[in-house]
What we know:
Layout: E1 5-9, H1 12-22, H2 25-30, H3 47-51, H4 55-62, E2 67-74, E3 78-89, E4 94-101, H5 111-126, E5 131-137, H6 141-150, E6 153-158, E7 168-174, H7 175-185, H8 194-201, H9 204-207, H10 217-224, E8 228-232, E9 237-239, E10 247-253, E11 256-262, E12 265-272, E13 277-278, E14 292-295, E15 299-305, H11 306-315, H12 317-356
Parallel strand pairs: 4-5
Antiparallel strand pairs: 1-2, 2-3, 3-4, 5-7, 6-7, 8-15, 9-14, 10-13, 10-15, 11-12, 11-14
Helix pairs in contact: 5-6, 5-7, 8-10, 11-12
Amino acid sequence: MIPPVNLRPATRDDVSRVHRWLHDRAVYDSWFGLDPLGRPVHIGYSPPEVLQQCADDWQAFLNVNHHKVLSVHALEEGHIGEAQLHFVDGETRSAEVFVLIGRPSLWRRGYGTAATVKLLDYCFYTYGLEEIFAAVPEANASAIALFQRIGFTIEGTQSASRYRKQPCLLLALREPAFQQRRSWLVEPVSRLGEAAVGQVLARPACMQMDILRGLSREQRAAVVALSSPMKVPAGWEMGKAQHPGDCLYFILEGLAELTASSSLGEVTVRIAHEGEALPLASLLGQGRLITSITAMTEMEVLAVPRSRFKDLCAKRPDIGNLVNANMAETLAGRYKAALAHFASMTQRVATADLWANI
Length: 358
């Protein structure tokens, strides 16, 4: 299983760390080398120059429409790298991507793959792009293998230049090829052992889990055995609207906020509590999410892979029928509550607008 990562807007501290990482020989040798003056080459921007910018210029740097600079954060390791997206051509809906894991101690542990998959989710599902390109130094065999494993194909070569010491391979990927590879790239390999399953089943939140109501202990154990326990920090993005939902999360402790985009910006749809499973949209159709999900507090969850859960429900109709009935009831209740929430919010906005115009 690739480790969980988030992509977040870069901060000055993040750029400062990238600047330090680039001075590690192992990093610049596998990245784009040194320029003629012996300085590490970076892509998209110069870290020393950006770090000297005033507040207004810094915000302008972050908000360039054709260039996105994002920091890669791992669940336990914190800030570990950088991902960049350069929009190449609006008409052909294409872009170029770059991913750097700046800490050599974390190389070959799946973080590069995880960050690239997450960045490609943004490319294809948030921005609706059709083709993605990547330029990878020919000498970086592991990075080339990573991109090919994800579905990229070699399109040509790019010679070394004044600013790029190494010749590069040019690789390309379209969404159908990515979609074919994505499911097995994100599939976990670990499962809970029998003793751990018993401990989870004794948790009150597990006994009250909304979509597992009415299941026997043996049936619940079959579901829980598919899961991996996770501790999620506050602020961690657990799902993104329009992106595929890879896991169903059973909340054992903590709160999660579900939000949706609107003409007023991002609005809260509801707050999820312990004893709830989310996002249920991951089990419907192609599994694309309707809302974004962020941990409001530190959380303890069970992550159940979507594909495993659906397979279990298909192979065990005694489980699948009860789960489907519970899902229908749960979704109806959540939909009703969301409508009431939005009606109340609309009334508050209208009242505020009235007072503002008196």
